[in-house]
Amino acid sequence: MRPIQMVDLQQQHQKIQHQLDEAIARVIQSARYINGPEVAEFKHNLAKYLDVPYVVPCANGTDALQIAMMALNLKLGDEVILPAFTYVATAEVIKLLGLTPVLVDVNNDDFLIDVSQIEKAITSKTKAIVPVHLFGQCADMETIMHLAKKHNLFVIEDTAQAIGAKYTFQNGNVLHAGTIGDIGCTSFFPSKNLGCMGDGGAMFTRNELLEKRIKMIANHGQSIQYHHDDVGVNSRLDTIQAAILNVKLQTLTACENARNNVAKKYDEAFANHPNFEIPTRVKKSTHVFHQYTLKCKGINRDELREYLAEKQIPSMVYYPIPLHLQKAYQSENYPLGSLPVTESLCGKVISLPMSPEVTFDQIEFIIGHINEFCKQQSASKK
Ligand SMILES: *Cc1c(COP(=O)(O)O)cnc(C)c1O
Questions:
Q1: Ligand 1 centroid, distance to 110 Cα (angstroms)
Q2: What is the rounded distance in angstroms from the CA atom of residue 112 to the CA atom of residue 220?
Q3: How far is Cα 248 from Cα 197, in angstroms, rounded to an integer?
Q4: Do the beta carbons of residue 241 and residue 196 sit within 8 Å?
Q5: pLDDT(381) > 80
Q6: Contact between residue 228 and residue 215 where contact means Cβ atoms under 8 Å apart
Q7: Residues 94-111: what's their mean pLDDT?
Q8: Alpha-carbon gap, residue 210 to 182, rounded angstroms
Q9: Is the pLDDT of residue 378 over 90?
Q10: Cα(196)–Cα(47) distance, rounded to whole angstroms?
């Protein structure tokens, strides 16, 4: 059995090694390292895959979020609503731009923003909602889009973990994660579902004017060279990364299916387990399982992780500390206890190895050791 990794990128790339080598060699040979033809090709390929008119690549997912907020003209003091249970990047760019993050708790079962709490967080200063499609399935976009329309707010989707997920609206309309709100933001960090071999990111939109602004902001605020109409940033996707992504995009659907097969095995093992709750599937969204995350009950999560580490089984905690209890993001608006679901989740979630390359042997090994740990725990309690 191969050593188990959270994400086995070596194995993933070995299968397409030849195509990757060729793609990289072609870029080296062309010497068009910035904005080469592979970047335009990738924009086109991804737009087609996601069925969205405009894709604007950039340097990473954090930049994508920042550029989106700049493109929408969000200004000092504007309030932006986001879930408290997310990766720091979402809150970081809000703070960096002098905006005010307004945290909303998440659902205990699916880890996604609790839409029943959004409306009471809206004030006259609120300008945008940033739903995060955490772990690979879509937040309740039907309700979020409805609230945004009612209160005249922008929606910026953080789809760094959910590329490929599809959301079905009540009217039967099916849209990809990241193509529903005003702007969708994603990351091609190597371990994401569609990852490159360095940093990369992209924004999606259906609005032509917005696409122009996004492109301008990402390119030093210029739409004509050396004419700077706005203060922008420099954020590009390297040609080499685009060439790699063109190869990997062709495998994305198969990878999504393989991830779902791994999740199904984990589900079978833990569905009626006394010590775990399996992740709830959202009815209106498909799940691309960026992470497979269990909630522990009646056992100590950190002791389980230590036990697994001894058996060479990696695990991760996404995320151990809620945003509002991080030193950089503390605020008197959010004392300990103010976002109870997020706080409780941080103490009990555990993410298991998840990638298209996890083998059934490895899954059996992981499940076996988790069950062994639980057995030892219950024996020692008696
Ligand atoms: C990975 C991630 C980001 C940031 O992406 P980078 O490319 O690392 O900047 C933002 N939001 C979420 C939810 C993520 O998982």
A1: 19
A2: 34
A3: 11
A4: yes
A5: no
A6: no
A7: 97
A8: 8
A9: no
A10: 17
Dihedrals phi, psi of 59, to nearest 5 degrees? -80, -25
Element (H, E) at 68: helix 61-71
- Say how far apart CA 140 and CA 132 lie, in whole Å: 10
Task: From 173, 165, 163, select the one nearest 202 (Cα to Cα).
Answer: 163
Question: Residue 137's beta-bridge partner residues?
Answer: 287
User: 241 CB under 6 A from ligand 1?
Assistant: no
Name the class of domain 9-105+114-249: alpha beta
Q: What separation in angstroms does the CA of 62 have from each of 39, 116, 350?
A: 19, 27, 24
Ligand 1 centroid to Cα of residue 89, in Å, is 6
Q: Is 62 in the pocket of ligand 1 (CB under 6 A)?
A: yes
Residue 174 CA, chain-centre distance (Å), reads: 20
Q: At 47, is the pLDDT very low, low, confident or very high (cuts 50, 70, 90)?
A: very high
Which class is 252-381 in CATH? alpha beta
Give domain limits for the chain: 9-105+114-249, 252-381
